[in-house]
Amino acid sequence: MVRTMALLRALIRTARMARHTSSLAAGLPADDEVLLDVPDDRLGPALVAAGRGEHRLAADLLAATREGAEWEDRDRYVTRLAAFAGPRPEWLARWRDAAPHDPDLRLLAAEQAVADAWAGAAPARAERLHALAPLVTAAAEGDPRDPVPWRVALDHARGGTAPQARFAALWGEAVRRSPHHYGCHVAALRFLAATGGEAGHGQCFDFAERAAHDALPDSLVQALPVRAVFGHLTTRTGPGAVPRHRLDAAVDRAVRLSARLAPADPWPAEVRNILICVLVRLERWPEALEQLRRTGPYATSFPWDRFSDDPLGQFLELRDGVRIEVAASTPLRARRSPALPGDH
């Protein structure tokens, strides 16, 4: 009897999948339309010019973000340009020859060097990061309003396992410049996760929830708790010591944020990709499908590069898996609503 029921459930699941999977592709771009790490309209031309060996557009872009105090954009652009510069040291060298005292170049060079050190082998990482201290300090001596060098400093300190007093000093400098800067909050969350030991998960959740509570409803900081969930779920085999209701509350907050932001927009794409990953880990399949629709064609390397050397392929494979899971839980036939009084 037990085997018969199990077989029946498997057959029903298969029938549901066959009936509904293709229809659930509605609202999702085709696989060949999905793009990885798409730059926005300002960064795109600077990267194209950089590909030709030119630095002027990148310099102008970073100068504009500094002069306009566009700190969130500045942080993203610095990160992307540093990733471009990593395997192309001659590009930064030409920029340095043309403008050796450019504060934007100093920031970009510090970000590139810290990111490169983090990408290297762990045994030599702390030593390499320690040697970068003067570069990080030079970046912080640029515009006194700019929080981005302090985000770089937090990433640098995390690698050297700096004491809590050092973290507190760096964090104070960051929030004094921009109390709700998303990049600085992410860097601080990573620092706490790296140095907190077994108590680190609860500490990360406390920090993320306080930050989200204080942020505006449409601030990306609202997604900080779901980043804490991602860190928790990917360093353990399951929900573990953090109660499930706390994980779900963080996800619900990120879902509300996503609903406030424009669909199919590259700006919140990484936040939505992280949210999708967490929804899948928590087996909240219909909501994961909805977020895939809201994300549109914008896949991001993070978080998928944590699971595969082919993040775009991982994203597309997961999309298919989500559709299958939703299809498997959808009834074969929609139930008719009861007739209302007066209906004929």
Characterize the biggest β-sheet.
2 strands, parallel
Q: Give the percentage of residues in beta strands.
A: under 5%
Gross morphology: globular
Mean of the pLDDT scores? Answer: 88
Coarse structural class:
mainly alpha
| H-E order | HEHHHHHHHHHHHHHHHEHH
Q: Give the neighbour order of strands across the main sheet.
A: 1-2
> Taking Cα atoms only, what radius of gyration do you get, to the nearest Å?
23 Å
Number of helices: 18
Oligomer: single chain
Low-confidence stretches: 5-20, 334-344
Overall helicity: 55-70%
Distance between the termini: 44 Å
Strand segment count: 2
Overview of the structural elements:
67% of the residues lie in helices and 1% in strands. Helix 11 (182-195) runs parallel beside helix 13 (224-235) and helix 13 packs across helix 14 (244-260). The chain has a two-stranded parallel ribbon with strand order 1-2. It has 344 residues and is mainly alpha-helical. It is built from 18 helices and two strands.
Summarize, please.
With 344 residues, the protein is mainly alpha-helical. It has helices at residues 2-20, 43-51, 56-67, 71-85, 89-98, 103-119, 122-131, 133-140, 148-159, 164-177, 182-195, 200-214, 224-235, 244-260, 269-281, 285-295, 301-304, 311-328, and strands spanning 35-36, 298-299.
